[in-house]
Structure formats: C-alpha cells, structure tokens
Amino acid sequence: MQKKDLLLVEDDRALADLITYHFERAGYNVTRTGDGEEALILCEEINPDLIVLDWMIEGISGIEVCRRLRRKGPTANLPIIMLTARGEEDDRIRGLETGADDYITKPFSPKELVARASAVLRRVRPAIAAENIDYGGIEMDLAAHRVKRDGKSIQLGPTEYRLLRHFLENPGRVFSRQQLLEKVWPHSEDIELRTVDVHIRRLRMALNEHGGPDVIRTVRSAGYALDAETVS
Question: Which of 56, 153, 168, 181 has CA 20 to 30 A from 223's CA?
C-alpha cells in the first residue's frame, strides 16, 4: 500500500521523535519542522496528506499556519490536527473555527494520535483509506491492482498505476513535474523531469484506449491534474 505523507510541525524534539516513531510504524512518511514559516514552505514542496500541527511553535504560531493554509486553494482542504497544551474550551473552539479538523490536548497517547489521524483521513480524504477509488468513470481496485474505465479493463505499467493512483487520491489538484516525481517515483533524485511527461503520455494513451475523453489536464507552466470536470 502506498505510504501516506505526514508533515509534523512540533518544536519539542523529544515529542517529535516519539510522534515520528509511531507514525512511521503505522506506515507514514514523516517530514518534520519546528518552524511555522518553514511549515508553509514544506506544504508547497511535499503536498502532505495530513498535518499534525502544534499550536505553540517557533516563528508564526500554529493557529496562524492553519489560517494561512485554509486561505490557499491547494491546501484549503488539507487535513490538519492541532496539538496544544491549551485545554480550555475557548481555545479548542478557536482552533476548530480556524480550520483544524481535530484537536488533541497534551499530554496524549501517541497511539491515540495515530488513530485520530486515520479517522480524519477517512472522513476528509476517504480515497486514501479506501480499497477502491472511483472518479470520473475510472475505477481502481487497490486490493486486486486492477483498473477499469467505464467498465472496461485498462492495462497499466507499475509507474502509470502509481501515477494514476496519486491523481485519483487528489482529483482536480494540479501537481508540478517535480511534485509528481517526489510522490510517485521511489528514487526521484535519479529521475529527470521529462520522464514525467513520458509516463503521463503513456497513461493518457491507456486511459483513452477505448475512445473516452481525456481527463488528464495539462496546466501550462504548472503541471498536470486529473480533472473530469473539464471534460464536456
């Protein structure tokens, strides 16, 4: 199963180590920072599936990080769990009203945090937790590793399959070539950007084999998106 990417924003190193350990055991790729400004930059660079965000961090506060992420289109629906030592009801309400999907007060059980993260992902981005993904007439059976479009089988190579899965889990979202390399290719540092174009072309050919409209949108100077909404 494809690993989920977690951005952990926590400036307590011991706590960050503990959280990282439990999330990595649960199958996540974890990127860490203790700085709010860097967290915003990392969100653009790695496009995490989930953010665990401490309220009190270096630089701008976690609550402000959450507010800024909710203002941007690409991160407006990004699942966010707030961590804080502030347990008062007004603080919890403020965190949730700012846009956090869940709120957990210190001290807490790391296992509970992982469970809460899984619950948020199932609720906010169900495709990540599902065994089957269906979008725009494209069906992917994750257990059987099979793909159909409008009921007809589609044959894909391993890379095209991973590429399609990433698009299906993020429909409508535009990804640059560099972002796709980092998400889809295991050793992206050894791959050239133009390789992405080659595999996008192969994926298009496979999906359109039976004459369906092209659902992969090319965004000039930006990248690619799976977007059935643009098909007339």
Answer: 153
Tell me the per-residue pLDDT of 129-150, one tens digit each, with 9 for 90 and over: 666 788 888 998 887 889 999 8
Structure tokens at 8: 């952990």
The model's confidence at residue 232, banded by pLDDT at 50, 70 and 90, is very low
Q: How many CB atoms lie within 10 A of CB 229?
A: 11
Classify burial at 220, counting beta carbons within 10 Å of its beta carbon; exposed 0-12, middle 13-18, buried 19 or more. exposed
Q: What's the CATH number where 89 sits? A: 3.40.50.2300
Count how many domains the chain has.
2
Of 13, 215, 144, 21, give the one whose Cα is nearest residue 224: 215
Residue 59 has pLDDT above 70, yes or no: yes
Domain of 110?
4-128
Q: What angle do CA 190, 17, 106 make, to 5 degrees?
A: 135
Residue 15: CB atoms within 10 Å: 17
